[in-house]
Amino acid sequence: MKRFAFAVVSLMAAATLFAQAPKGWKMRVDRSASASDPDAPGAIKFMAMGGGFHFVNPQAAVYWNPSNAATGAYTLKGTFTLLKPSGHTNYYGLTFGGGDLDGPQQKYTYFLVAQDGTFLVKKRDGEATSDVVKKTPSDAVKKPGGDGKSTNALEVRVSPAKVDYVVNGTVVTSTPKADVKTDGIYGIRINHLLEVMVDGFGVSK
Question: Is the pTM of this model over 0.70?
Answer without folding.
Answer: yes
